[in-house]
Specification:
eight-stranded mixed sheet, Rossmann fold, 8 strands, nucleotide-binding, ParA/MinD_ATPase, 293 residues, FlhG, alpha/beta, ATP hydrolysis activity
Length: 293
């Protein structure tokens, strides 16, 4: 663990030095949300991040689920520090960024997010500069938000570049996913949603579930929600959770892992097709999120 932490500090220090050489990068900020719990949102987010990284992308994973943070548990990693320690200036950004499987950098959840909304201007500037020091070196920053639509989750969604909505074919999950998108769209009509159907029996069920949500959104919200892909119901996923190893690493040839690989390629393809869209970067995200502008 000590060697791993030291390696990370050296990595971050090197990335900080590169800032002056490369200038400020612009990461795509992605929030992953769900209308209800139990649909596999956090597991999807973790494995999606790892799959992006396996394709050569620079990824930072942020556990933003207030009170129910569990990404570290899914990875089998004991997080020594979290956001609270940065806010209290008890630890630096280099220390709170933990390393997961395949050297995936992540910031553990826990207490602290609530305090962000009452920071002094000085503390807010400190927090922003600390996060930006590493985040601007990333291409993708993923925020795993809490299930449902709390005030905090709404702020995350409204401030990000993309919002991936995870649901399952289960009727209440479909209803809650649509309800989330409806409420967000009413307040923030420019938000771009992308739909993921998890735990499906086959492609027919995935397509039927997607069509039901998309047709309803098109009819009542006048908005088109792209269907990004699906993940098969796969016992390997259950076994991986029990082993605390991401399924994309534990069982790379499983149906779920192959589905995720296709889904990730589709996401990257859609990302390239919208490359002309202006990205705000982490500083723009934090400004909108914390100042609520």
């Amino acid at each position: 663990m000590t060697d791993q932490a030291q390696s990370l500090r050296q990595l971050v220090a090197g990335q900080n030095r590169k800032l002056s050489d490369r200038g400020t990068g612009t990461a795509r900020i992605i929030t992953v949300c769900s209308g209800k719990g139990g649909v596999g949102k956090s597991n999807f987010t973790l494995n999606f991040a790892l799959t992006l990284k396996s394709m050569g992308k620079r990824v930072l994973l942020f556990d933003a689920d207030i009170g129910m943070a569990n990404l570290d548990v899914l990875m089998g990693v004991s997080a020594e520090y979290n956001l609270y320690h940065l806010l209290g200036r008890e630890a630096s950004i280099e220390q709170i960024i933990q390393t997961g499987p395949n050297h995936l950098p992540f910031i553990a959840g826990g207490s602290g997010l609530e305090e962000l909304f009452s920071l002094s201007e000085s503390d807010l500037n400190y927090f922003t500069s600390q996060i930006a020091a590493i985040a601007d070196e990333m291409e993708y920053i993923l925020f795993d938000t809490g299930a449902g639509l709390s005030k905090e989750t709404m702020n995350f969604i409204a401030s990000a570049d993309d919002c991936l909505v995870v649901t399952t074919p289960e009727p209440t999950a479909i209803t809650d996913a649509y309800a989330l998108m409806k409420v967000v769209h009413t307040s923030h009509p420019s938000i771009v949603f992308k739909l993921i159907i998890n735990q499906v029996s086959n492609i027919k069920e995935a397509t039927a579930t997607s069509d039901k949500i998309r047709l309803t959104a098109r009819r009542f919200l006048q908005v088109d929600i792209p269907f990004l892909g699906y993940i098969s119901s796969d016992n390997h996923v259950v076994q991986a959770v029990k082993r605390q190893i991401p399924f994309s690493l534990a069982y790379p040839n499983s149906a779920a892992a192959k589905d995720l690989h296709r889904l990730t390629l589709r996401y990257l393809s859609s990302d390239r097709s919208s490359a002309s869209a202006e990205l705000q970067g982490i500083k723009g995200f934090l400004s909108k999120w914390l100042h609520r502008i």
